[in-house]
User: Fold this.
Amino acid sequence: MDTPCNCGQIKSLGFRTVIYGNQIKIKHVPVWECEQCGLYEVFPKIKQDLRKLLVQLKDEGRVSVYFDEYNELTDVMYEVYQESIYKEADADTYLLEVSERCKERINLLLDVYGYAKQQKDKQWMDQLMSRLSQLTFTPAEAT
Ligand SMILES: [Zn+2]
Assistant:
């Protein structure tokens, strides 16, 4: 999962545990890292959702969670990452596959949304909408 870094070296995408205030641990967060220049940057597209989750966790007093269980894009990213052919691939190949899988996931969730709407289940519809909103992703938004 390598791609050129601004410093001229190579940065790579991995899934890391992010720790806040020495107590809240969020696992499986996608992060860009470069050994050469010390870059350590949370994947841009999920930054806002990560911040929201942090606020939510503080409110709930929870200390350890998996980010892919809260974030639909990260869930797709982690799923692809665990497949060995993509683990060894360059970042472009990986991210292209991620964006394809996002489209598939969107179609799947839209089907489920149609069903929830038929059932007039407002809470379920809202929940699906929020999952759908996390899935719009193109490789150009990766860095
Ligand atoms: Zn660098």
